[in-house]
Every structure is written in C-alpha cells, then in structure tokens.
Design a protein that fits this description.
By secondary structure, the protein is α/β, with parallel strands linked by helices. About 30% of the residues lie in helices and about 20% in strands. It folds into two domains: about 5-95, Ribosomal protein L30/S12 (60s Ribosomal Protein L30, Chain: A), CATH 3.30.1330.30; about 110-250, SPOUT methyltransferase, trefoil knot domain (Alpha/beta knot, 3-Layer(aba) Sandwich), CATH 3.40.1280.
C-alpha cells in the first residue's frame, strides 16, 4: 500500500527537505529533482529512481500510472510546497543517488568552468555543452553545485547525457595538453584572438570564467590560445553562458 504523508513534520519530509541544501545532499549522497520533464529525462537515461513523491491532486494522472515499480509517496499540497524550489510547482519530485562520475576516455571536447557562481548560468552551460556535442563538463572550484535545484532546472536534464564532474582545472588543462589537445581560454587581453578562425574536429578544452572576474590569470597563462568574441553593438559584454554557446558551436565541427 502506498504511504500517504500529510504533515511537513514527518521525518521523511524532513530528510527530503535536507536534499535542497548542499550539506544535506553530500551527507545523504542523494539529490532531489522536481517536475515532469526532469523525471522523464532521468527515466530515459536509465537513472535509478530511489522514490517518487507526488502531490495528491496529481496522483491520478496517466503519467503516474505509466511509472511502474518505483517506491511512491502521495503527499499533501503543504508537503509539496515545502519541497518545491519553484513558485508554481508541478507537484512531482524524485530522489536520485549522487553517482560518482568516472573520467572516461576523452573522445569529444570538454567545457571547463572556472568559478561560475550563478546556478542558472552553470545549468545553461551544461545544457549548451550537451547541445553542442561536447563529451563532458568540469566544474572548477568556486562554481555552483551541479545538484542545486536551480542548476538542475537549467540543465533541463542534460546532466544525464554527458560527464559532469567536479575537478581541479589546472590538472585537466595539463592532461588535455599532454594528449596533444588544444585548450582555449576566454579573455580580452593582448594575447586573445578572434574566435572565428578556430575550428576543431578532435577533442579540445574550452575554459569559461566567473561572471565578474573572468578566467583566472593562472589558467590564461597556460592555455594554447585565448579567444574573444568581437562585440558589434554597444553591449559591454556577453553573458557567460551565451558566450560559451557561441564558442562551442563555432569551434567544434
């Protein structure tokens, strides 16, 4: 029989709510996803769902009936609101395990993210890397957490499709260069060149940096080339996720 939970003081609800914090996620080794689309993407990617949490008024939908053999909890609107990270929640949640991402053989380009702090930007960067055909994304120190609800919402499920790992960018840059793969920085310094002439068919690394400070100088000094996007209008700069999207699609042929 399916368990029905109506109180926000229920221990299971308290445990699920902890998954909305980085500390809680790290301690439990789990994270929470919200909404039909993300859950469907997880199922499509054969990710094991630990449990489903569904608001009582959504419980009778065909969508719920189509998901079989998953531990499911029916919860009140009050409980759903406690777990929701959005103002207009769809009332469906799933708990997933945080899986140790293994570094596979590099066969495609990787995006290196240097201290991008906004979860929406990090999620969009992951989604764009997926769309551009990249093989992985490395989240450097100081970057927003992959499992932050806002990051996950912005990925739109793309984190299920490619290798997203936290790592030391200096080590990754060195590893790529040792294999003979180019590593590009993004900058506006005297070394920087117009991106439009750079084309690659083999793996390469692309570093994008913090919204305000850009890529750290220590990284820019060891890249093969630093690229810039010429601004044609009067905007001072481009959003980091927009700039990265332009570069990824342009360079990788």
């Amino acid at each position: 029989m399916m368990e029905k939970i109506e109180s926000t003081k229920n221990q299971k609800v308290k445990n699920w709510k902890k998954l909305l914090t980085r500390k809680g996620r790290n301690k439990a080794g789990q994270y929470l996803i919200e909404g039909f689309h993300l859950i469907e993407e997880a199922i499509r990617a054969n990710i094991i769902i630990q449990c489903l949490i569904i608001r009582e008024d959504v419980m009778n939908s065909e969508w719920v009936e189509s998901i079989e053999s998953v531990e499911t909890y029916e919860v009140s609107s009050e409980v759903a609101s406690e777990l929701a990270d959005t103002g207009t929640t769809q009332g469906v949640f799933a708990v997933l395990n945080i899986e140790e991402r293994k570094t596979e053989t590099v066969e495609k380009p990787y995006l290196f993210i240097d201290a991008v702090q906004d979860p929406g930007n990090v999620g969009t960067l992951i989604r764009s890397a997926d769309a551009a055909g990249f093989g992985g994304v490395v989240l450097g120190e100081g970057s927003a957490d992959l499992y932050n609800p806002k990051t996950l919402r912005s990925t739109q499920g793309s984190h299920f499709h490619l290798n997203v790992i936290s790592g030391e960018l200096e080590r990754w840059v060195g590893s790529f260069q040792a294999k003979g793969y180019a590593v590009y920085g993004t900058a506006l310094d005297e070394r920087a060149v117009d991106y439009s002439n750079e084309k690659q068919t083999q793996p390469f690394g692309l570093i994008v940096g913090n919204e305000g400070a850009g890529v750290r100088s220590e990284l820019l000094e060891v890249t093969d080339k630093n690229l810039y996007i010429p601004i044609k209008g009067q905007a001072e700069s481009l959003n980091v996720a927009i700039a990265a999207s332009i570069l990824m699609f342009s360079i990788y042929q």
